From TrEMBL:
<dbReference type="InterPro" id="IPR008670">
    <property type="entry name" value="CoA_reduct_LuxC"/>
</dbReference>
<protein>
    <submittedName>
        <fullName>Long-chain-fatty-acyl-CoA reductase</fullName>
    </submittedName>
</protein>
<keyword id="KW-0521">NADP</keyword>
<dbReference type="InterPro" id="IPR016161">
    <property type="entry name" value="Ald_DH/histidinol_DH"/>
</dbReference>
<dbReference type="Pfam" id="PF05893">
    <property type="entry name" value="LuxC"/>
</dbReference>
Length: 485
């Protein structure tokens, strides 16, 4: 059987020459892709004045392009997406129904109102369209404008939408983007780029997108590409080792925007136990936060702190709640959660070992690799909490919400909270400990374009914020007219 090809796209040109064989992550698929070393001199934009064609586009022009692209990304009518989806069944960390649902939802990101909301929230359309002027206290007129940049994006492969997010962010900023496709999703970005080439091969937005795959850690290649004369910003998603690796190339003139891995948690207040209905509602919401994309996202809950109480009655409440969560998780739609593709053997060994220690832990499910809910019988997480994955979560009982704070740190991304009434006492304290995103329980995976991400505003950071000061001695104090001392 012939190996599939992940083409390289360089600013409107689809390239399938100089193919080399590459093994996808996990060994489930071998694919062919152009040898990036053969195109190292073509990947960078070169002269930054080549960005000028993007500034002949208005924001409305960009929106028109995005909407037209969205229409062409309708899954049922796009052969590139269909092929990428089929191949991603093998390379993605999630199962086919989740993968397909992700592809089918891509076009929703390209709605005019969604993109406008994102830009107005994070940047302000006026700063992208021209110079925004205001007068300072000393009479100086200050103009500010946000410009695009020459960027490299090292995207993650745990969610199909990340490649399109990257493309949209670059379009609205009028940036030039090189996307390094990940080994567990080498096809999505290329499928979108090929759709753009078919739709408008000579459009500036098409001609400022490149997609390529190369093996991470190829220092000979990276040392040539990762230079300030080629790039101004690197936007990197990835694990600790990948982040550590890319930092070696950072130098004056080359900025790293790091979207590194995080852990997420949930806090269930005692109000969840006010009624059977509340318990059931909280269980369904929590199941969604655990099971979404089979717990493969940083947003997914892993260790959950439950204000059930730690006495005998409290533990009984906790264990009942754990059973509700497990049942709700198994009932989630297969478009967002299923039995995991490959249940981690090391994790399963840990979970199975806990079954022998039912004095300190109650393990619900997990025998068939479908995921498990572990109810601690003491107010401490399991020793292997950092390994929790594949729809395996740990419920930890507490008496007071203040006990949760020691478990929140700089690695904590999303905190799902129930009931909503306890948010007010938590939302000004959790960030002090490191929490980066607070959501209503059940909505952890519903990330919003218009919101910050990982305690930063990536869209703002991806732009170059330029100021122009207008001053004269008639309006502002002149430095050269200061009296001598």
């Amino acid at each position: 059987m012939a190996h599939p090809i992940a083409p390289m796209i360089i600013r409107g040109e689809v390239i399938t020459d100089h193919l080399i064989e590459v093994g996808g992550r996990g060994g489930d698929l071998t694919f062919l892709t152009p040898d990036a070393n053969k195109y190292i001199d073509r990947l960078p934009l070169g002269n930054p004045t080549k960005l000028a064609d993007l500034y002949r586009l208005s924001f409305d022009d960009i929106l028109d392009y995005a909407v037209a692209l969205g229409e062409r990304l309708a899954f049922d009518n796009n052969a590139y997406l269909q092929e990428a989806c089929e191949l991603s069944f093998l390379t993605a960390p999630t199962t086919p129904t989740i993968v397909k649902a992700s592809y089918m939802g891509l076009q929703n990101l390209l709605r005019r109102d969604v993109i406008t909301e994102m830009v107005e929230s994070a940047v302000g359309v006026e700063y992208l369209e021209g110079w925004v002027k205001r007068q300072l206290l000393d009479g100086t007129e200050l103009e500010v404008r946000c410009f695009g940049a020459r960027t490299l994006h090292i995207v993650a492969g745990n969610a199909v939408a990340l490649s399109l997010w990257t493309i949209i962010r670059n379009m609205v900023l009028r940036s030039d983007a090189i996307i390094k496709a990940p080994s567990n999703d080498p096809f999505t970005a290329a499928a979108i780029a090929r759709t753009m080439v078919d739709m408008a091969p000579d459009h500036p937005l098409t001609r400022h997108l490149s997609v390529a795959y190369w093996k991470g850690g190829d220092q000979a290649f990276e040392q040539r590409l990762y230079q300030p004369q080629n790039l101004e910003k690197i936007v990197a998603w990835g694990g600790f080792a990948a982040m550590k690796h890319v930092t070696q190339y950072i130098q004056p003139g080359l900025e790293l925007i790091s979207l590194d891995p995080k852990r997420s948690t949930s806090i269930i207040g005692q109000g969840a136990f006010d009624s059977e209905a509340n318990m059931r509602e909280a269980a369904v919401r929590l199941a969604s936060d655990i099971g979404a994309i089979n717990q493969k996202g940083c947003v997914c809950a892993r260790t959950i702190y439950v204000q059930s109480g730690t006495d005998e009655q409290g533990l009984e409440r906790l264990n009942t709640f754990g059973r509700y969560v497990y049942d709700a998780m198994l009932a989630l739609p297969n478009s967002i959660s299923t039995t995991p593709k490959h249940y981690d053997r090391n994790l399963k060994a840990h979970v199975d070992a806990l079954r022998l220690d039912d004095e300190w832990y109650k393990v619900i499910g997990g025998q068939a690799g479908e995921g498990a809910i572990i109810c601690s019988q003491l107010p401490e997480p399991v020793p292997f909490s950092t390994l929790l994955d594949d729809r395996t979560a740990n419920l930890v009982p507490v008496d007071e919400l203040s006990e949760v704070m020691d478990a929140v740190d700089a690695y904590t991304q999303t905190v799902g909270i129930y009931p909503e009434s306890i948010k007010d006492q938590l939302k000004d304290v959790l960030p002090l400990h490191g929490a980066q995103r607070i959501v209503s329980l059940g909505y952890a995976a519903a990330m919003k374009f218009a919101a910050p991400q990982d305690s930063i505003e990536p869209l703002r950071r991806m732009g170059k914020w330029i100021s122009n000061q207008i001053a004269s001695p008639q309006t502002s104090p002149a430095p050269w007219l200061r009296p001598s001392i």
